[in-house]
Amino acid sequence: MKEPAVETLAAESGWRRFRRDRAAVWSGWFLAAIAAVCFLSPWIAPFPYMEQNLAQSAMAPSSAHWLGTDLLGRDVLSRLLQGGMISLFVGLIATAVALVLGICYGVLAAELGGRAEDLLMRGVDVVSTLPLTLVVILATVVFGQNLPMIFLAVGGVSWLTMARIIRNQTRELRGSQFVQAAESLGQSRWGVFRRHYLPNLAGTIAVCATLTVPGVMLLEAFVSFLGLGVKAPMTSWGLMIKEGSDIMEECPWLLVSPSVVFALTLLSLNFLGDGLRDAFDPRTSRK
Amino acid sequence: MAYVLRRLLEMVPVLLVVVVATFLLAHAVPGGPFDKDRPLPAEVKARLEAYYGLDQPLPKQLGNYVVHLAQGDLGPSLKYPGWTVREVIGSRIGVSCALGFVSLFVAVLIGVPVGVLAASRPNSWLDRVPMGFTLVGICVPSFVLGPILALVFALGLGWLPPCGWGSPEHFVLPALTLGLITAAPLARLTRGSLMEVRSLDYVRTARAKGVPPLRVWFVHALRNALLPVVTYLGPAAAGLVSGSFVVESLFDVPGMGRLFVTAIINRDVMLILGTTIVYAAALLFLNLAADLANAALNPKVARGR
Predict the structure, then answer these.
(1) Angle B169-198/B125-139 helices, nearest 10 degrees?
(2) Which residues of chain A have pLDDT under 50?
(3) What does the alpha-carbon distance between residue B23 and residue B16 come to, in Å, rounded to a whole number?
(4) 3-class DSSP state for residue B84?
(5) Torsions phi, psi for B193 (to 5 deg)
(6) Which residues of chain B are modeled with pLDDT < 50?
(7) Element at A97 (helix H, strand E)
(8) Buried b (16+ CB within 10 A) or exposed e, B105-121
(9) Rounded-to-integer distance, Cα B253 and Cα B150, Å
(10) Whether residue A131 has a cis bond before it, omega within 30° of 0
(11) How far apart are CA A269 and CA B168, in angstroms?
(12) Does the CA dihedral B195-B200-B204-B205 come out positive or negative?
């Protein structure tokens, strides 16, 4: 039941289009590099990120400490890598949470159809107008500011757009002939979902996911910035920016390096997401 | 009119859900408002809790709260003795509203013209440079832009006060931070939708029948192109709300955003609830307003109803 020729052709031309998008390709490499150094930080960081050296506190960047040290004499570069690991981790896991929720909700709505679908989608509209940041803050405080809860809380409010897009796509698929054929041949709903919906939604899902990651990372940084997210001695980019902005007059380097890395990462994620969308989304690729 | 009424009625269950959810979350926050460094004597704490009704079963508290809420009573603040939540919020909300509206104004004033400019010469440097900036604007969150602006304009150049509240100069940095952050997506949206509208038949017709180009541009195209922009103002307001948390703490602005954050840190359950409800209601209204403005601008929507 595979139709390899058409599928691979579409995918191949998608990749070719993607490779022509220089900004997206460079962003991809940049992100890969950032992710690699951050996730390898326990082994490659120049200093342990928690090691305090009060004799060398608040030092400007030097050859020993490339990005300087903070008030407790901790190496900023090492902390930047560790913080990046946490931020990226939140980005990935919370996006996965949002993906699962969004796909389930969207497909369910499209499958139910009729009034139930209207009600479900109206619910999404209403919820997306609410101040969800407040909910995230409350939830992380309630459940103890630990990482798994941050994943859940951040992911739990980031699935709305995803649900909308998935539902629209599923509705289109549902009316298509090959799905109707599968149904008339007696394939179960689960079978249709697994064999037909998921493979056809894969591109959309990948694009959506890439574009959700920056929002999710922003949310985590935001909550951590307010001192209500990731807790010391652990750190994240949001928390580092907060600590830096507190003493930016005396030690601007504490603010600059996490801000720049964070902004560049978000920028690349956006470029990558846009590139993927232009290359693989059938509606925009024909332009 | 019936539509407005329906939308208003629809808000009631939504707000109720918000109340219940926030109520449960706020009461589940570990640590109570009366936990201090030195623990209060047990009987004093019990008296305090009885006074505020915190000793009753949770469903009953919730019921009481909703009944009072329906009468516009948000209950007493637990951390500001003698103040009701309404008074506390009332003393702060003006500041936040003023800041919010000025920011939105700044955002529209910068975002829309930049979008129009970029769309008028697509793919030229007039398009590329501003759009590059907007991309940066989207990726630089308020808590990065705010400190950078303060570093440059307050500490570096000394033009503006770094923080505080009271005089018009104090408005500039917070409003600029929030405004610039919101202007970036607005500019992109304006450009995108102008590009789309401009290739439509009715614009070509207008041009063909000899309407002056500027009139086509501003009267025919822009009106339709602004529809998604107007709709976006609702979500943009939500962004301003969360941005205000950051900006108000950064620049020491005595507004609602900071109130909410301190309420959480103080475990002031009533104040957490009160602020959340006010925010939720405000955002629902703003979205309704955006939809109505959209309907007023869009002949298709207006006739559909």
Answers:
(1) 130
(2) 1-4, 284-287
(3) 10
(4) strand
(5) -80, -30
(6) 303-305
(7) helix A76-112
(8) ebbbebbbebbbebbee
(9) 14
(10) no
(11) 38
(12) negative
- Give the C-alpha separation, B192 to B122, whole Å: 10
CB A69 within 8 A of CB A58: yes
Structure tokens at B258: 């900071």
Q: How far is CA A37 from CA A31, A56, A78, A87, B292, in A?
A: 10, 25, 10, 13, 50
pLDDT of res. A11? 66
Helix (H, G, I), strand (E, B) or coil at A69: strand
Distance from the A187 Cα atom to the nearest Cα atom in chain B, whole angstroms: 39
Q: Are B159 and B216 in contact (CB under 8 A)?
A: no
Q: How far apart are CA A113 and CA A108, in angstroms?
A: 9
* pTM for this prediction: 0.80
- For residue B264, the chain A residues in CB contact (below 8 A) are 137-138, 141, 228
What three-state secondary structure class fits A82?
Answer: helix
What residues of chain A have any CB closer than 8 angstroms to a CB in chain B?
A: 126, 128-135, 137-139, 141-142, 144, 214, 218, 221-222, 225-228, 238, 241-242, 244-245, 248-249, 252, 255, 259, 262-264, 266-267, 270
Query: Over the Cα atoms of chain A, what is R_g?
Result: 22
Q: Is A168 exposed, middle or buried (0-12, 13-18, 19+ CB in 10 A)?
A: middle
Q: Is A75 helix (H, G, I), strand (E, B) or coil?
A: strand
Q: How far is CA B196 from the centre of its chain?
A: 28
| Segment B205-245, tens digit of pLDDT | 888 888 887 788 777 788 788 888 888 887 788 788 878 88
Are A252 and B151 within 8 A, CB to CB?
yes
Q: ipTM above 0.85?
A: no
CA pair distance B172, B152, nearest whole angstrom: 13
Question: Considering only residues 238 to 277 of chain B, which have any Cβ-Cβ distance to chain A shorter than 8 Å?
Answer: 238, 241-242, 245-246, 249-250, 260-261, 264-265, 272, 275-276
SS3 (DSSP) at B76: strand
Q: Phi, psi at residue A88, to the nearest 5°? A: -65, -40
Q: Looking at chain A, how many residues does it have? A: 287
What is the pLDDT, as a whole number, of residue B52?
74
> Among B228, B219, B213, which Cα is nearest to B120's?
B213
| Residue B123 near residue B286 (C-beta atoms within 8 A) | no
Q: What token pair was written down for A179?
A: 């799905």
Q: With left for phi above 0 and alpha for psi between -120 and 50, is residue A254 left, alpha or beta?
A: alpha
pLDDT, tens digit, for every residue of B7-55? 888 888 888 888 888 888 877 776 666 766 667 777 777 777 777 777 7
